[in-house]
Amino acid sequence: MMEYLIIGIASYLMGSIPFGLVLTKFFLKKDIREIGSGNIGATNVLRTGNKLIGYSTLILDIAKAVIPVIYVKINFPELIYIVSLCAFLGHVFPIWLKFKGGKGVATYVGILFSINILFGLVFVISWVLVFSLFRYSSLSSIIGSLSIPVYVLITNQTNNAIFFGIMFILIFFTHRENIKRLKNKEESKTKIY
Length: 193
Description:
With 193 residues, the chain is mainly alpha-helical.
């Protein structure tokens, strides 16, 4: 039991490393929380105009979920959903930043690819399709997140449905301000290249 608790806490702490903040402070001497939306995630880091820092943030935010989830998948497969949730919550509610973190999308992508590469591909394809039509990162992320519980239900993987349904609700929650801006046609479009 103690081992499980340690793994959960370690996953949360790894998820809570604010790479967007660390990279922009170190390389750009800026506080990402004072730029754009104030979010520490990759989409907002891209708003600094430095694509390398933006994509580095994306890769590291994905990796901080991949590392604990793959470790647990190999050694403690029964804990995979708990550890996935801990890593995600670490990013969204990081202890180092008074529990004010990112939207959790990149970390969720890391979780998806670690659990099942097909899940990751479904998300990415959905995200790209929506983004190519509308150019809103937030809308793409919401639809991408919704595509996973829909996919597992269509493919009759009902044992996964509750977890992915919860993850969709959490990502919907982290995008509540974006949803308001989308409704009011005030959301800014995202340049990814």
